[in-house]
Fold this sequence. Notes:
alpha/beta; FAD/NAD(P)-binding domain; 3 domains; 7-stranded mixed β-sheet; 6-stranded mixed β-sheet; binds flavin-adenine dinucleotide
Amino acid sequence: MQTEIIIIGAGLAGARAAESLAAKGHSSLIVEARDRIGGRGYTRGFAEQAPLLELGGSWITPWHTRMQAACTRHRIELLPTVPVQSRHWHDGSALRTDGPVASADRVDYDRVIATIVSDAKRLKQGFDRDLAGAPLLSVSLQEYVDRHRVARSTLAQLMAWWTISGAGDPKTVSAGEFLASCGYIDGTPEGMMGALTHTLKPGVSMLAERMIAASGAKLQLSFPVARVEQSADGVKVIARDGRHLAAKAAIVALPFNILGDIDFAGALSASQQQSAQRGHDGRAVKLWLRLKGVPQGHLVTGGLGPLQWLFTPYAPDNGTILAVAFGLDDGSWHPNRRADVAAGLAAIAPQAELIGWDWHDWCGDPFARGTWLSTPAHGADLSSGTWARAGRLSFATSDIAPDGAGWFEGAMASGEQAADTVSAMLSQ
Ligand SMILES: Cc1cc2nc3c(=O)[nH]c(=O)nc-3n(C[C@H](O)[C@H](O)[C@H](O)COP(=O)(O)OP(=O)(O)OC[C@H]3O[C@@H](n4cnc5c(N)ncnc54)[C@H](O)[C@@H]3O)c2cc1C
């Protein structure tokens, strides 16, 4: 029997598409470039040993209901994030324990935070301009901080939260990525912490595996797609080595930054082509560090160095503790170089001894080419409407999600939407 639908990509978007198609009575085959499932959800042991950690995404929020439901369906436990128990800030000159900035800079800090709270709330209410009429979305973070004449010590705190929100070059990524994240809870940058409430046990990779197994979809790993052709009655999906598969339709569940690598044989519209070539600018670096000398629940932000955000979510084990840290892949340092990681750590946690570290290079990864959605301030259309369909193809990925874009939740939402689109197309 001919496969009805090929799903290209076995991340959460592809896995959710497979589940949704099965629920509608369609058969599907998933093809995946890597030899593993999960994509940017990637659970593996620290330094290939224990314990299991999330090298890609990890947190879900209280409003990520699709993820919560999937965890319940597939017997994945939700672990609450430990509360912050000790707090340090680096103001760009010195590490502080008394507050985000020195008293001389407090007025600037409070003024900027009040502006951010106002702008984040306006954005959440659907306005794309601030109270004075200045744009909030079609402006980069750099333009935004220049507009508000942000002092260096205040900037150190904003940039720390940027590494887990906009997470790209502040000169190109929209300030809206940062403001939207501030708006999750109370409008402040630090409010984002209150959104990161749970992680998955045993992990995101296992959730994706269980979703695909339960869907009954066939799965072909190590099948890197290079070209997708369409005819009047079907699609042909061709791997880099020439192997090919046929179906009535396909769901392209690839990271947005990979679309430009695929030859769609002329099927994309001009705006889709332009948008795929531009891509998104997500360039975060996430590291796991094994440390001595830091307590559980310790949060440090700031520094403007390689590591700008650090948190210790787990209890110590045999005298060491694991810390998750974020920085930006901006060419000024490299996470493979011990000296760079040690220097970054020494700035924000000088009391810590670095035992080891682990990470995955998502920007260099040929099947990701970036981290999570970071919308360019100027000239890219990543809207789910633009990417609804191209002939017999429908598109799914968190990067272009109708809801929860950039998050696992967005991957799930986009997988559901693509399944609806393809199912409706086949029933016509
Ligand atoms: C470091 C990091 C931290 C993050 N933190 C969080 C977080 O805390 N919470 C959260 O919700 N989200 C987080 N995210 C984002 C989240 O991981 C992604 O939004 C989500 O996993 C994307 O799912 P997807 O299915 O859209 O894409 P992917 O997971 O990227 O899946 C796409 C699949 O397509 C495959 N593929 C690529 N090219 C080809 C090809 N040519 N042929 C066939 N297959 C191909 C890939 O191998 C992959 O399996 C983070 C991401 C990163 C990288």
